[in-house]
Amino acid sequence: MDTRLFLRGLKQLGVGFYTxxxxxxLKPLNDTLYADYGLTGAHVVTADEGGAVALAAGxxxxxxxxxxxxxxxxxxxxxxxxxxxxxxxxxxxxxxxxVVGWRGEPGVHDEPQHAYQGKVTPQMLELCGLRVFALDKxxxxxxxxxxxxxxxPLLAKGESVAFLVxxxxxxxxxxxxxxxxxxxxxxxxxxxxxxxxxGQDYFVSTTGKASRExxxxxxxxxxxxxxxxxxxxxxxxxxxxxxxxxKARPNDTFWCLDxxxxxxxxxxxxxxxxxxxxxxxxxxLLNNGAHESVGGMPVVGGGLRFAPLAEAAGFELVLxxxxxxxxxxxxxxxxxxxxxxxxxxxxxxxxxxxDLGRPTQTPKENLASLMQALGK
Length: 376
Ligand SMILES: Cc1ncc(C[n+]2csc(CCOP(=O)(O)OP(=O)(O)O)c2C)c(N)n1
Description:
Layout: H1 3-12, E1 18-20, H2 27-37, E2 43-45, H3 49-63, E3 67-72, H4 76-87, E4 96-101, H5 115-127, E5 131-135, H6 141-156, E6 161-165, H7 186-196, E7 202-205, H8 209-220, E8 228-230, H9 238-248, E9 254-259, H10 260-265, H11 268-276, E10 281-287, E11 290-291, E12 297-298, H12 307-313, E13 317-321, H13 324-336, E14 342-347, H14 363-373
């Protein structure tokens, strides 16, 4: 279905405010909202999906109109708390219109991190009290009109509904122009990082293309993958995984390769990490100003800097690099500063290779080889 027709239909339900976290499958919707509203006013990209449900709740309280909350199904977990304990009919009964991209739909080939979430997606939404409508390539105007007719009285009663979007279910949209403000790409930075790191160091990389690039760079450089943990799902948790490892292995060095969207999603972890004072964990923030892996929607406008946040949280050595020369200067200083808690922010252009592949190891193979390298 064309995204503009979809949005026009939702207007009939009173939906004129849009919020969420971007998703590759919902890219036509994300791009259209960005083209029409930018990132202020009627369209807000939140740090996480739960925040979007809460924002939609606030909008309803102040206007009496339901808002749209869009997300990849990976984000349902983040949204469950406000859906169950804030908007649900047994609590406040605040209606929301969710639009959920269905990664890992059973029978459709997808990446392993989506397999379980994809299988339980309809049930999870129903368990949260939502009436689920499927939107696929075959959904025509008449079918959509029927869904709107069924949704309207539910919303009027304070219940929420979800449009579950199958691959290709929404079309159209003009691609977002991604931030081009630095000299390096994420892949350039990761290559330089692994070349500077010690051969015995461990890496924990964030969700999305960063992990795919790390995997391919290892291969291209003739390295093995056994010292890398690829956080293929659970966006925003790479630093806690790395912290768990670093605390248990004080004599090893760990690098966390984080994304700006991911770090923002669970920003509280930065303060916890600083408070834990794990001096064998180097947190690297690959800041391209965008959710590049899912289409390039800016992260809070693209201007957020994490170095001041890391300083405020208590990191002892905080350095920034904007180009290859600076990064080559910064990394030996970082490595030499053992005993200090270290944070590096790298400002990047958003973008990736067209031919970027995906890890050929399964998550279980990745884990088994890493744990073997750790002697476990
Ligand atoms: C909880 C959750 N919400 C949304 C997604 C979809 N998703 C995967 S990668 C990504 C963008 C990550 O952005 P960032 O951390 O800035 O890294 P970049 O892609 O720019 O390298 C998103 C939104 C997800 N995997 N999990």
